[in-house]
Amino acid sequence: MTHHRDIDAGPPDEYVEAEIQRLLVEDPAVAEQGITVVRRERALVLYGEVESTHRREEILRRVSERFPDVPITSDIGVIRTEAPTEIEQLP
Q1: What is the pTM of this model?
Q2: Which residues contact 17 (CB under 8 A, 6 or more apart)?
Q3: CB neighbours of 45 closer than 8 A, spacing ≥ 6?
Q4: Checking CA distances to 86, which of 27, 37, 44, 55 falls within 20 to 30 Å?
């Protein structure tokens, strides 16, 4: 009987990257297509931009809940932190 030690080590990084990417796009609570997953040294980095800090925190929370053993780093920027204060007047 042969034992495969790598089974206990968890899925390979490429699989985890694909799963996180799928979660970002397919989870109705996230549905974020502008976020990409990139491997950097020992962590996976989420790159992209979202419309609010709340949105960024929600994405990171859902990813870390689903993949608690994967080191995740965020490089997600916020496009705009508040609604525009002026309404553009068209002639």
Answers
A1: 0.68
A2: 37, 39, 44
A3: 37, 38, 39, 72, 73, 74, 75
A4: 55
